Each structure stands twice: as C-alpha cells, then as structure tokens.
Amino acid sequence: MQLDPNAIADYNQSQLEGHQRKLSYWTQEVATAEPIIRKLIDFQIAIPSWALGTGGTRFGRFAGGGEPRSLEEKMADVGLLHALNQASGAISLHIPWDIPTDYDAIKGLAASYSLAFDAVNSNTFQDQPEQELSYKFGSLQHVDAAVRQQAIDHNIDVIRHGEALGSKALTVWLSDGSCFPGQLNFRKAFGRTLDSLGEIYAALPEDWKLFVEYKAFEPNFYSMTVGDWGSSFLYASKLGPKAYTLVDLGHHLPNANIEQIVSILLNEGKLGGFHFNDSKYGDDDLTAGSIKPYQLFLIFNELVDGMDARGMNHATSLGWMIDASHNVKDPLEDLLQSVEAIQLAYAQALLVDRQALEEAREANDVAQAQEILQDAFRTDVRPLVAEARRRAGGALQPLALYRQLNVRQQLIGERGAKTIATGL
Ligand SMILES: [Mn+2]
Q1: Residues of the chain with pLDDT under 50
Q2: Model pTM score
Q3: What is the C-alpha to C-alpha distance for residues 388 and 375, in angstroms, rounded to an integer?
C-alpha cells in the first residue's frame, strides 16, 4: 500500500502546536539543538528483510495478518516505515529468503521508496531444499572440504546479488560450533573457518566490507567458532583491511560490557556495524531499548566519542541495522519503536558534555562523571527526534499515525489474514 501523500502533512498540522511548545525549550535554551537535529536527519537505520513478518520460537509461531509474501511486498513495508519516520532508508537482504529475480525492477522499486540496499546476509545455518550437502555439522568449519566449498560458493553468490543491487557489504553470521565437549578440534575449526572466510574475502569487490558477526551460543551450545568479539576481531584482523567485526547486541553472555567492547573495536578501526535489538536472557531479539535503554545510551555514548575521535561520519562510517524478531507485536509497529529508541539514544549521546566528562575523569571525580552521563540520559529528547522527522518529511509521531491510518487492517485487506513471510 502507498500512504496518501497528504496524510503525514495533515497529521503533523494537527499536532504542530503541542510539538512546537515542547520544542521551544530546545531552540531557545540549548545551543546544540540545531546540530543535533541535523545529525538525526542524516542518521538512517537499515531494516532487515527477515523482520517484516511474525517471528517464532522453537515452540511455535503465531502469525499476524497481512505479512509480506514476496521481496516486493517486504520492500513496500520498509518503504512505508521510511515514509512515516524518514529514518529507515535502507533494507538489508537475506539470501536465499529474498533472492531478487529482476535486479532492475527491484532497484527501481527501491528508488521509488527512497531505499538503499544495506549489507547482504548469507545463510549457512539451514539446509535449503535443493542443497546437495548438509550444514548439520557446520559450514565454513566443516571437516569435509566439499561442504566448506559449498558454503564459500553460497557466500560469493550472495556478494554477486548484492553487487547487482548496489550493496557494499556482506554480513557473515555462522552457526558453526559444537554441542558437546570433544566434538570439535577448536584449532582445526578456527583454521578451516579462517581459510574459508579468506576465499570469500578474496571475492569481495574493491569497495566492499566483510562483517564477521559473533554470537556466544545457540544453535550450538558448547562452543561457537565465532563466539565472541575476540574471535571475530582475530578473524577480521587476519583477513585484512576490508574485514570488520559486527556487534549484535543480543549475541553476548549475560551482563557483558558491550559499550567497552564497542569502544575498543572502534579504537582499533575494526568495528564494522551493528545489529540492534534488546534482550533480557539471551538472543531474545526484542525491540531496541525495551529492556536496557541505559545500556543502549552508553553504547551510543562510546560510539559518538570514538567516531569523533577518529573523525568518522556518524551516518555513513558504520553499518546501522536492526536485527529483531517479533513474536507478539505487529512487526511494523515494533520496528517503528526500535528506530525511535535508537534515535533517542543517539540524540542523548550527542548531548553529553564531553569536555566536562573528560575533566571529571582526569580529576578522578567519579560522582561528577556519572552525573554528566545520567544528566544526558535523563533528558527528554523526544521533541528533537520528532522535529528531525518533521523536517525530513516524516510524521511527528509515526506509531500514532500508523494506528490512525489503520495500516495493518489495510495490509490484511490487500494480502489476506493468513499470509506468512519468509524468515525466522
Ligand atoms: Mn544479527
């Protein structure tokens, strides 16, 4: 479905007075308000093609209605999100769930929604129906060279799809590992995985990046061959300058200090990108900022600090992607919430008085350093984010307008109540 072009303008007009009242404090009292709004307008977060349908667990899946049935419908959903928030201007494709058949038509469709193609994602964690050899015991680490070659060929195939669409990065997440002590020779698994990644790396176009995503556990429960940021950093360092570590917020052991990991990787020039989500127990794939918003802020605090220290462009130097699943919520509502939570954390990080923070640190003034961070975190930056959206042509309150327009009911009308999107 396409939004009525006047719907956003009419809605914003109805909300304008209240919005301007809340914004006036910022424009009158805060000198940095204007540069923060401009940075927010530039900041785009890619939507994964696998997050537009209802997710499931191993216990079951409770599909919602009107889920996209094709790549074209997935792109329409992302186009809808982007029209509402003007901050979701990219889609991250998963192969083989979303193989384009007509590149020009797909590129034309993306352009019509003002969408770019972010990193493409390979899949060697499942067996596909037409596949010759099984990944039951791993892919790039497999003891059988023929299985490794099949997985390498698949990744190169994904690169070619991405090239045809204008992507600039490949994300490799491996489920490789072992479920029981003794099953795997760790040294051989590392070596084989590194060699396999090396062949994929060699097939990268000149201006591409390879993101090596790590995960602590699941589906393997004893060891993961790319299990933590240290392993990912090792692979990325050995592979070369086009390889980077990708941080998925849900892929750590409980209580990991993710902001410190981010800081160190950034400083080494090896942080490539992000998969945003939130979790309480494991790889829960919940809405960004729904469980630990302070952690999300602290991560952005390190990102802003580290990117500025290295002279990096906030909007374009790293890959910003959501990787989430929605078991009980409307996926589009959930994604609107995630994007907003990411924007709020980013805006709060931009508010931090960095000079005062450094002075407090150098003086060992622990309480003052904490006050400075919490002062930013406790500031209501929602008017700034809403103003950035309004200026970019989006809705002041995307979720409220989405509901007011009955978007989900319209999608059910178009697509049916029992459609199922490909994905997890
Ligand atoms: Mn991920």
Answers
A1: none
A2: 0.97
A3: 22
Q: Ligand 1 centroid to 233 CA: how many Å?
A: 16
* 336 vs 333: CA distance, rounded Å: 5
Give dist(CA 178, CA 280) in Å, integer: 24
What is the C-alpha separation between 277 and 287, in angstroms, rounded? 5
- Measured from the Cβ of residue 149, the count of other Cβ atoms closer than 10 Å reads 14
In whole angstroms, give the CA distance from residue 51 to residue 97. 12
Residue 34 is predicted with a pLDDT of 97
CA dist., res. 181 & res. 225, Å (int): 13
Residues near ligand 1 ion, CB 5 Å cutoff:
248, 275, 323
Whole-Å CA distances, 22 to 6, 16, 19, 387 = 24, 10, 5, 10
Q: What per-residue confidence (pLDDT) applies to 9? A: 97
In tens, the pLDDT along 60-79 reads 888 889 999 999 999 999 99
Residues linked to residue 47 through DSSP beta bridges, in sequence order: 91
Give residue 70's pLDDT: 94
CA-CA distances (angstroms) from residue 91 to 44, 81, 388? 10, 11, 21
> 365-396 as b/e, with b when 16 or more CB fall inside 10 Å?
eeeebeebbeebbebebbbbbbbbbbebebbb
* Residue 141 CA, ligand 1 centroid: distance in Å: 19
